[in-house]
Amino acid sequence: MGVRRVFKKFLKYLIPTLLVLLIIPVTGRKYQSRKSLDSFREKPLRAALALGDFDILPRGYLTGFNYELLKTFAGTHCDSVRIFLGEKNVPYLDSLRLDSLDILVVPSREVTESQDITILHPIDTSVAWVIRKDPYRGHEILKWASFIKASPDYQLMTRRFFQGYNPYRTGKKDPSIISPYDHIIKKNAKLVGWDWRLLASMIWNESMFHIQARSPRGAMGLMQMMPRTAKSFGLSDMLDPEENIAAGTRYIQMLQKTFSAFSTDPEVVRRLTIAAYNCGEGRALEDLDGREQSSETAAYTKAVLNLYDFFRGVEPKQDTLLGPDSLGGIDPGDEHARDEEEQHDDQE
């Protein structure tokens, strides 16, 4: 009887102890995971893309690629996100340390590990995502990256950004892909009744598919819109490909409507619209009056139509292409930007 009582007493204390030992690790993991996830929900995610001159065409579209990755990450880990372009000579590492910035995307060669920051390479070893030292956030980013890289969507994404049209890049190319944003271009081209490859050709000649493109006069994004014009066409985030292309297409729609009053020939209207996107409505109409367009506008229109023919796989109707960028060194964004400024000044 004594042995039995001792054994019962032993079990009485052993079972609760075992339960505690089993439950604590499980709840601890849940708590840790919860804390890890919630660390990104405390406030809007703030991220700076500062790849600068490292993002050159032979490497693909690194800024656009990482912008889309950040958006994808934010979609599962944050309530909202603000992504902006990093400027030169701004101490963003200090912003990380002061918790006024959450993620800094820079070339790996430009940062070194320290006691208060963590350098991650979630996708590409040449590009670093830098965060303030935090084991939970670092763990979540790497866990998310591992999941993303194993998904079919990621394979399509890498093809879009690194295997499409790019005359400056050697290596594998996919002839079915023109830009990283073909799906957005196709949707918007329908609104103006264009072959989507024509709209893609215009975007290439505006920005070469760089979301970070910026002209000396301040035109920004894929369709190189001036801030005031962009705002009037509903564009709030100049970096966002969907917003930028949609706003630029609405501008094209307006131009087409304007020129439809001067000609019933769809080819003439199309050509005037392309010219006007570069130089403005007034200067484009000079073509109808028999006056010669500026050399920049003529080169721009020719370049867009040449590249459109190239994308369609037909012999260009215009003169020979002027080079890999179809422009022969001409920057059409400046005249486009100047005209937008003048139009706004006339309205004010």
- The gyration radius over C-alpha positions equals 27 Å
What is the strand arrangement across the widest sheet? 2-1-3-5-4
Shape: elongated
Taking pLDDT < 50 over at least 5 consecutive residues as the criterion, the unreliable ranges are: 23-37, 320-348
Q: How large a portion of the residues is in β-strands, by DSSP E?
A: 5-15%
| Count of individual helical segments | 13
The N- and C-terminal alpha carbons lie at a distance of 102 Å
Corresponding CATH architecture of the largest domain = Orthogonal Bundle
Main beta sheet? 5 strands, mixed
CATH topology of the largest domain: Lysozyme
Question: Brief overview, please?
Answer:
The protein has 348 residues and is an alpha/beta fold.
Question: How would you portray this structure in words?
Answer:
The structure is a single chain. The chain is of the alpha/beta class. The protein has two domains: 45-153, D-Maltodextrin-Binding Protein, domain 2; 182-347, Lysozyme, CATH 1.10.530.10. It is built from 13 helices and five strands. The chain has helices at residues 2-38, 62-77, 92-97, 135-149, 152-162, 182-192, 196-207, 227-232, 241-259, 266-279, 281-285, 295-312, 332-347; strands at 45-49, 81-85, 103-107, 117-120, 127-132. It has a five-stranded mixed β-sheet. Strand 4 (117-120) and strand 5 (127-132) form a beta hairpin. It is elongated, with a radius of gyration of 27 Å. The N and C termini lie far apart (102 Å). The model is unreliable at 23-37 and 320-348 (pLDDT under 50).
